[in-house]
Amino acid sequence: MITFERQRSILRLLRERPGMKITEMADLLEVSRGTIRNDLLTLEEQNHVRRVRGGAILLDEPPTVQEMPGAQEAEGNQEGKQRIARWASELVEDGDAILLGAGTTVQQMIPFLTDKRDLTIVTNGLDTARLLKQRTDHAVILLGGILLDQGFATGGLLNSDTLQQLNIHSAFLSGSGFTRESSITEQTLEEAELKKKIIGRSLQTAVLMDSSKVGKVGRFPFADLEDIAYFYTDSDIDAELMDQMRATGVNLMICGENTMRTYTVSDRQASYTLGFANQSEELSFAVDVRRGLERAVADLQNIDLVIADNKLSGEEALRVADKLIERNVDLAIEYQIDHNVGGQIMNKFQQANIPVIAVDIPMVGATFFGIDNYRAGHDAGVAMGRWLEREWAGAPDLIFVLEEPRAGLLPAARIQGQLDGVAHILGGIPEEKLVYLDSGNKSEISERAMTEAMLAHPEAHRIAVLSFNTDAANGALRAARGLKREKDVVIVGQGADRSLRDEIRQPDSRIIGSAAYMPEGYGAQLVQLALQILAGDPVPPAVYTEHVFLDAENLDHYYPVG
Q1: Is the fold of 3-61 the same as that of 74-257?
Q2: To which H or E segment does residue 490 belong?
């Protein structure tokens, strides 16, 4: 389950069984105790719980989306609505002005907006506005108007004056029903009139509607498919109706249990269907890769995209490969961590005669796409060596190496590159100063490994940390802070995800920089490479992306603030 879902589960468990211990929650949710501790820390910061020795106490918390009055409507297909809301929230960018309708499916977007920055959110939903203020720090504007029958929303044309003063980038609406004959409908005239005005004032509109409403007819139509940009629904939608919808000018987004398929706008049938098995939807780097791929596909408008989540698991990656083969993809883009299952995954695709691009972790038989791991690592190592030479006279007590053995030899080159870069500046590294740790490709695993290593070396006050990726670097920093030994460490990262860039910007940060792979640019390059392969054009066995070492001095040049 994703982080938000796991944290909701923790709150549910604490309501049902007050005093439950961390070990019990970890066993029930099948995650590590470190993951539960991190979740409890987040929930405490959100004022949902107070941590106590061995567990946590539930505080008086505001209702969740599922517990709000009127949310009973959503219970029949709660998971489907959450999936729809999760994918729809990907349309929202930092700084956007958006509008959220009062429907319960749209309400499910709120948890996925907490990590966005500087949003202005307009809504006609009373409960939606209250939840937004309780769960986010975004600016919220509540539209006035006629209070509708159940008292959960406002409607009617009294809202028009307020709307005229707003420039809305994206509007997210639901409805009571949809058919091709009657279009998208509502049950009350007031809400239908308001939604017509909203669509007219928005740069783009997305309708979120689970399949139980598709095929039903409300009393008052407010939009045709041609009036909106995106229609999000779940995979239980009728296949014949789906084909009819694809013929209109709407981007149809089918949110399944394990995959999300996009049918893009085109004057003709899509030329190709690409499958993308993402490394993990919990890693910001992987999310940026996926977002870039979605943008690239949307720009071309003649490619369908099937998205799945490998969940940092070799076993899951094998299951996902079967799903993509069932979807008859023309080419698979595999982003998965476990090199031990790469051969099995490739065998599945080769048997189905489906070409594969392997992202960052190579697979024999696939075209490799990604970073030049050794060069990126070497640049970070040189930067670390220069810092050590300048600040610690070139004499660290220890060098902790947070590696990822599952990734195989090629990604391991980024670790070797870092070691060689440090050695190039310092003239060598004594073997007894090296401590190798397993990052697990997750910040909580890196934090635990780093904590144990620092506790085992209380005498070391000059510890250089070389990291496999952003999560390893973040985990190392959290461990040092937790032990009140932040000044004992200096860290370089790999990947330069959003969270690491924010940390590098902090004054006196112990993360001095990171090799940046620019994941937001992967998508366009991947699509271009995929089209070359599908067209039968010759491509090299490995295509490398550019990288740069980011630090506090050049960060704003590559990633300006605001």
Answers
A1: no
A2: strand 489-495
For the chain, what is the mean pLDDT? Answer: 84
Residue 396: per-residue pLDDT: 95
Within a 10 A sphere around the Cβ of 285, how many other Cβ atoms?
A: 25
Q: With 0-12 CB in 10 A as exposed, 13-18 as middle and 19+ as buried, what is 136?
A: middle
**Non-local CB neighbours of 174 within 8 Å, separated by 6+ positions:** 101, 103, 104, 105, 106, 207, 208, 209, 213
The answer regarding whether domain 74-257 maps to CATH 3.40.50.1360 reads yes
Q: Which residues of 62-80 are buried (b: 16+ CB within 10 A; e: fewer)?
A: eebbbebebbeebeebbeb
Q: Give CA separation, 181 vs 110, 231, 320, in Å.
A: 32, 16, 36
- Distance (Å, whole) CA 99 – CA 168: 7
Please tell me the CATH code under which domain 3-61 is placed: 1.10.10.10
E strand or H helix that includes residue 379: helix 373-391
Count each helix (H run) and each strand (E run) in the chain, helices first: 19, 27
Domain spans of the chain, in order of start: 3-61, 74-257, 373-519+549-558
Kindly write down the DSSP assignment for every residue of 239-279, as one continuous string: HHHHHHHHTSS-EEEEE-SSEEEEE---SS--SEEEEEEES
Phi and psi based region of residue 500 (left: phi greater than 0; alpha: psi -120 to 50; beta: remaining): alpha
The count of other CB atoms within 10 Å of the CB of residue 181 is: 7
Q: Measured between alpha carbons, how far is residue 447 from residues 434, 450, 471, 511, 529 in Å? A: 18, 5, 9, 15, 37
Query: What token pair was written down for 350?
Result: 């080769």
**Cα 123 to Cα 245: distance, rounded to the nearest angstrom:** 28
CATH superfamily of 373-519+549-558: Response regulator (3.40.50.2300)
Helix, strand, or coil here: 129? Answer: helix
- At 170 the pLDDT is 92
What Å distances lie between residue 43 and 40, 281, 337, 483, 554, CA to CA? 5, 20, 29, 21, 35
Q: Please state the length of the chain.
A: 562
> Mind listing the pLDDT tens digit for each residue in 523-544?
999 999 999 999 999 999 999 9
pLDDT at 284: 77
